[in-house]
Design a protein that fits this description.
8% of the residues lie in helices and 33% in strands. It is mostly beta strands. Among the domains are: 60-146, Agglutinin, subunit A, CATH 2.90.10; 182-286, Agglutinin, subunit A. Keywords: Lectin.
Length: 288
Amino acid sequence: MEHIHAFTCGQPNQSTLTRGTQSQAKSLRSNMKLPATLLFSSFLLLLLHPSPSSANEGNILITGDVLTTDSQLSYAGNVFVIQDDCNLVLYNKGSGFESNTHGFGTNCTLTVTNRGQLLIRAGGGFTVWTSPATGKPGTYAAVLRPDGQVSIYGPSVWSIPPLRSGAASTDVGEELATLPPVRNLLFSGQTLYDDSKLASRDYTLAVTDDCNLEFRKASVGVVWESKTKGKGKHCFLRLDHRGELAVVDDGYRVVWSSGKTAAEGEYVLAVQINGQAVVYGPAIWSTA
């Protein structure tokens, strides 16, 4: 059994809705302020259009990835979709979100720029809409969080294998450590221990019983490790609010750290299907 525990207090993707889509749409319609007709028609389209991906799960969009028309990020009944009317809409159990770009173009796509902006571009190549916040050049991640909101984190501050990137600054926002566990993500303030792991397709990241942090590919075995075997007992992995990963023993002694820190804020560690584990942050924009 896998667990991600709070240390204190707090997807271009392949994703389709579950077989319970019809009942899910009914539930979401009753809990959202977006028009019911818009919600219903969009869910019918989502049934027919999975989201392409080359780098990640269906809950995360990385710089360089593209969501095409009617493609979406989805997680736990929440959907973030670029509709065929060129409107970007977040369907969740709250007030949702939309870019208000209905009818502004055709064959629209959604990407994350190298400065951390969501970008809607029409089929003719012109820009329809961008999210307001920008950061330093680098690789960013738009994450559909388990609380139903979308946040942009970045740029990347650490990765396996190493990436060349800087770090951006932002104000400290809502604590994420109390968010429910997600299979491929670890948020600031959360820890990974007791046989738990992060996983995406063939790749897993876990702390072993002998205190070694290992990144594995199913068909290969260990492709990266912290080289800390036997250096501690009852160790766990922690992501702090400055983007640093650390393997810590039960005496709270740091056995290994990524050594990468940035501005204080919200960060996320993502295990991606392309064979990378990357820390992005801090958060620079959110639908919340």
